[in-house]
Design a protein that fits this description.
Structural class: alpha+beta
Subcellular location: Cell membrane; Membrane
Catalytic activity: Zn(2+)(in) + ATP + H2O = Zn(2+)(out) + ADP + phosphate + H(+)
Strand content: 15-25%
Keywords: ATP-binding, Cell membrane, Membrane, Metal-binding, Nucleotide-binding, Translocase, Transmembrane, Transmembrane helix
Helix content: 40-55%
Radius of gyration: 32 Å
Protein name: P-type Zn(2+) transporter
Family: Belongs to the cation transport ATPase (P-type) (TC 3.A.3) family. Type IB subfamily.
Shape: elongated
């Protein structure tokens, strides 16, 4: 049965149980559905039995796509159109799907046994001084060969099925060579590094996905449901569409729905990214994960459980992580070149000199992967260590490489370009000191962030507010206070209208403040308007300098993608001179903007800090989470996490990336240069097989010395 799990215009995700661990069917669906007019891309994930389809929503609709799928699945699979033969039980792709289900305990046990045997051999040789046979038919050689089977299988498939060269072939070649030449311990080293790396990679990936699901969970176990005039406590898991759910101050909303009674100020930062509370009343839509700061509302549930917006966003983030296109590591590319060069050099030496000894010398010089693995790996390792010292967590060398070359950068607004702390930007009135005195006196006991900004600004100017007033907060309007014999109103235009205060003198000024991206707060005393206060979020330090450095470093397009009001976002984008602005965007809209920018400009780097940025971070080629105080979800999803929110770190990150690539290239040329010299000397008979190994020591030391310069990078 085909189920539609999530859909937005132009994109649909379906669950197809028959796809589970069925690579031939996945290939068949991708090929056939991709030929349907209007389908732009079809991507199957056999591991979770899902299919993601991107399509022109003006030409197709979800039900039509599902009908096409049913027809495709009903037809017999044509093996000629598949990348593998479904009748072939040795199909590596199908086996890989099964391997992904292998219990982690089995993988750990395999690694422990191999490491234990290697430890036994080392103790026997170096402590007990008893030699251990390492020839191909010895126990050590046979165990090494058995442990190498997965690597040999990968190398075989990439060579003869995928017809591409990678580090798998290079390492497999070195491993077999080591066993045949009586160096089984060298083979053990390669196997242990690969097994350990794969195990760690799988562990980190699974942990990240579990963390995403856990942190995006509602963390609400029970809810209050209105039934026949009474409130009954019900488990959230038992809520159904149509239930009337009551939510009070300090509680999270457990469902998506519409308010049918009451009004409240909601914190929807996890949904929209807006830091200020949003006033909601009867008829307004609300989403699970929102937080009621003030008020009581009754919601008619329209979506519950896995159908809520927050749950669907979690699924989208998880799917985006799975569907990121695999990118070959720089070492793979260099290894492929050197593998071809080494093979040709060895064969040429054997043909021209007819000397097995000289050919073996050339093979030894070229067989060790140091010149390729170390060229990039040591540079990346040193750079990662340097970045860590500067509180930059980079989750892999490929991310470090790509962040320095991406031509497009996208920024979230609140918490990224600006801080979470509002500040008073301007005060407009006949007597500004009197205006601030009455406003600060009224707001002194208010816990709202805007109130704190007004009080803080007044105190900075030496204005001491009256702390003896009595105030009342009016939802969606503002504050009414009694200070001595005076009545003070602080709030929006609705607040002034309810108090019958004329705003004619300050209406135009307030409109200008709003157009420039500020929040306008009116102040009135005893029924007469005193003026208006413009409040904004503080820009982070070094924003202008960092943007200028990024421009100079080759970034051709800088965009703002924000959940904030379009006018507020546009004003900030204009102030900073950004190339494009996309305001009022929900999380999935942000991801769509990232996709559009990638199609227009190439690789995209997304910089954000909140739950609402998680999907965009996962969708971008490189996601960067700003600030250790930012959302844990964003940090888990991002490829790079910056512990603090200093904007200068972005420019430093790109500079480090470029320097790392330069050092890796230098290392490669150093390694290849010594290898070429070794080939020439070995082919001429000047270099013996024993001396061929010294070539590796020479360029390894040079590579390590060159890469160590990155440890001192600032």
């Amino acid at each position: 049965m085909i189920q539609i799990r999530h859909q937005i215009p132009g994109r649909i995700r379906l669950r197809i149980p028959a796809l589970a661990r069925n690579r031939p069917l996945a290939d068949w669906i991708e090929h056939e559905l991709g030929a349907v007019p209007g389908v732009e891309q079809a991507t199957c994930n056999p591991g979770c039995a899902s299919l993601v389809v991107r399509y022109g929503h003006s030409r197709l609709d979800p039900e039509t796509i599902r009908a096409h799928l049913e027809a495709i699945i009903a037809r017999p699979i044509d093996p000629a159109r598949l990348t593998c033969d479904p009748a072939d039980g040795r199909c590596r792709s199908c086996q890989r799907g099964a391997q992904d289900q292998t219990p982690t305990l089995g993988r750990i046990l395999s690694l422990v046994l191999l490491a234990g045997y290697l430890g036994y051999v080392l103790i026997r040789e170096h402590l007990l001084k008893r030699p251990v046979a390492q020839n191909p038919l010895s126990p050590t050689g046979l165990i090494a060969l058995a442990g190498a089977i997965p690597l040999l299988r990968d190398a075989w498939h990439e060579t003869f099925v995928e017809r591409r060269f990678s580090l798998h072939q290079f390492l497999a070649f070195s491993l077999v060579l080591g066993i045949l030449m009586g160096e089984a311990l060298t083979a053990f080293e390669i196997i242990l590094v690969l097994r350990g790396g794969e195990l760690l990679e799988g562990f980190v990936a699974n942990r990240s996905r579990r963390a995403i699901r856990r942190m995006l969970a509602l963390s609400v176990k029970d809810a209050w449901v209105w039934v026949d005039g009474q409130e009954l406590q019900v488990a959230v898991a038992e809520l159904r569409e149509g239930d009337r759910v009551v939510v009070r101050t300090g509680e999270k909303i457990p469902v998506d729905g519409v308010i049918e009674h009451g009004e409240a100020e909601l914190n929807e930062a996890s949904i929209s990214g807006r830091s200020e509370p949003v006033f909601k009343q009867i008829g307004d839509a609300v989403f699970a994960g929102g937080y009621v700061e003030r008020g009581v509302i009754r919601i008619r549930a329209e979506r519950v459980g896995e159908a809520t917006y927050l749950a669907r966003m979690a699924a989208l983030v998880d799917a985006s992580l799975d569907q990121k296109a695999p990118v070959q590591q720089r070492a793979d590319e260099l290894a492929a070149r050197l593998l071809r060069l080494g093979t040709l050099s060895t064969l040429a030496t054997l043909v021209l000199t007819r000397s097995v000894e000289r050919a073996l010398t050339v093979m030894l010089v070229m067989s060790c992967p140091c010149s390729t693995v170390l060229a990039a790996a040591t540079a990346v390792s040193a750079a990662l260590h340097s970045a860590t010292r500067r509180q930059m967590l980079i989750k892999g060398g490929i991310h470090l490489e790509r962040v320095g070359t991406a031509p497009c950068l996208c920024f979230d607004k609140t918490g990224t370009l600006t801080t979470e702390t509002p500040e008073v930007a301007t005060v407009i009135g006949d007597d500004e000191d009197a205006l601030l005195y009455w406003a600060a006196s009224a707001e002194h006991h208010n816990t709202h962030a805007l109130a704190h900004a007004i009080v803080r600004h007044a105190e900075t100017l030496g204005i001491e507010p009256d702390t003896c007033g009595i105030s009342e907060h009016l939802l969606g309007h503002g504050l009414e206070a009694r200070i001595g014999e005076h009545r003070v109103l602080v709030g929006n235009a609705r607040m002034m209208a309810s108090g019958k205060v004329s705003l004619r003198r300050y209406k135009a000024a307030a409109e200008q403040l709003i157009e420039s991206g500020l929040t306008a707060v009116y102040v009135a005393l005893d029924g007469k308007a005193l003026g208006v206060i413009g409040i904004r979020h503080q820009l982070r330090a070094e924003v202008h300098e960092t943007l200028a450095r990024l421009r100079a470093d080759g970034v051709s397009h800088i965009a703002l993608i924000s959940g904030d009001e379009p006018r507020v976002a546009a004003a900030l984008a204009e102030e900073l001179g950004l190339d494009s602005c996309h305001g009022g965007r929900l999380p999935e809209d942000k991801a769509e903007v990232v996709r559009a920018l990638r199609a227009e400009h190439g690789a995209v780097v997304m910089v954000g800090d909140g739950v609402n940025d998680a999907l965009a971070l996962a969708e971008a080629d490189i996601g960067i989470a700003m600030g250790s105080g930012g959302s844990e979800v964003a940090i888990e999803v991002a490829d790079i996490a910056l512990a603090d929110s200093a904007m200068g770190n972005l420019a430093e990150l790109r500079a480090l990336s470029r320097q790392t690539l330069r050092v890796a290239d230098q290392n490669y040329y150093l390694a290849v240069g010594t290898d070429v010299a070794g080939i020439a000397l070995g082919a001429a008979g000047i270099l013996s097989p024993a001396m061929g190994g010294l070539i590796h020591v020479t360029h390894t030391l040079g590579i390590l010395a060159n890469s160590s310069r990155l440890l001192r990078a600032h």
